[in-house]
Amino acid sequence: MNHPAPAVVRTREELREALTSWALTGPEPTDRRAVVMTMGALHDGHLQLVRRAREEAGATGQVVVTIFVNPLQFGAGEDLDAYPRDLDGDVAKLASVGADVVFAPTPDVVYPGGDPVVRVSAGRIGEVLEGEHRPGHLDGVLTVVLKLMHLTRPDVALFGEKDAQQLLAVRRMVADLDLEVAVVGVPTVREADGLAMSSRNAYLSDEERTLALALSRALAGGKAAADAGRGSAAVRQAASGILNEASGVVVDYLALVDPATVGAVPADHRGPALLLVAARVGTTRLIDNQAVDVVAAPAGAGHDDDTAGQEA
User: In this structure, what are the phi and psi dihedrals at residue 141, rounded to the nearest 5 degrees?
Assistant: First the structure.
């Protein structure tokens, strides 16, 4: 099915008109509005989110993609000004995957009164892992996500599982604040060699990109340990051993956590867990994660000293 090029809107008024026009055309009862929130510089990971959004919305539903580099989620010294931007290229890509509307506002449209005085707090989810290394980051994410949900009024919002802590924070915000939006996580899309797709991969030199593969190798090593029936300490040790041997990779954290709370799992944990890593390669900070199924540690095993935010 050929899909027309998406309408690009920049203001609240233009967005409201695009949303109202669709609602007035009489969508089928099963049709929904699906939104994918991005910061642009789109790659196939983003496009997979939009493909899934098209499925969720229905053939004549409405798919809205937001492109906004949100200043609230960047800390001092981070890459706000240098963050890659290519709106024309992004719109061309979105035309091939079924997007109907691209909302690409400027900061003064999203924050007409300047930096907002009232913001959303991520609570304890925002105090560990990414929150420890990027204070206020998840507060900025949730604040803009809530605003964009209000502006786009979706039935369903789709987020990548690569940003696992962000996905959890969004789900908790939706539940805790009684938002009538279904949140759908979409699996991480990887390059052929295992590197998780990210807009920041564009910063990596050829040598740095090779070094960055240590992250996915470490996660695969941890998963292999879990699949072999080893306990949580062994899972983390398998991953950290690979990272410790990777010169040029500076680890912010490696943690094995409860996927529902991002709290560190105990030594006797049995069941699903998430192995999370954040590291710098050169000047580029990358994150990745892997779901694992952990068995309890053998009887008499020592206490697992894994803690959220512990460095490898």
Answer: -65, -50
Helices (DSSP H) in 117-183: which residue ranges? 130-133, 137-152, 164-176
Q: For position 243, which CATH number holds?
A: 3.30.1300.10
* 166 marked ligand binding residue: yes
Residue among 14, 23, 53 at smallest CA distance from 37? 53
Residue 227 among known ligand-binding residues: no
The pTM of this model reads 0.92
Domain range for 17: 7-186
Q: Enumerate the active-site residues.
A: 46
Does residue 264 belong to any structural domain of this protein? yes
Distance (Å, whole) CA 157 – CA 143: 15
Average pLDDT of the residues of the chain: 93
CA 180 to chain centre: 21
Same domain, 153 and 223: no
| Rounded alpha-carbon distances, angstroms, from residue 210 to 166, 206, 224, 246, 277 | 26, 6, 21, 11, 17
Is 211 found in the same domain as 78? no
Q: Is the pLDDT of residue 268 over 60?
A: yes
Is 45 part of any known ligand binding site? yes
| pLDDT beyond 50 at 312 | no
Same domain, 223 and 155: no
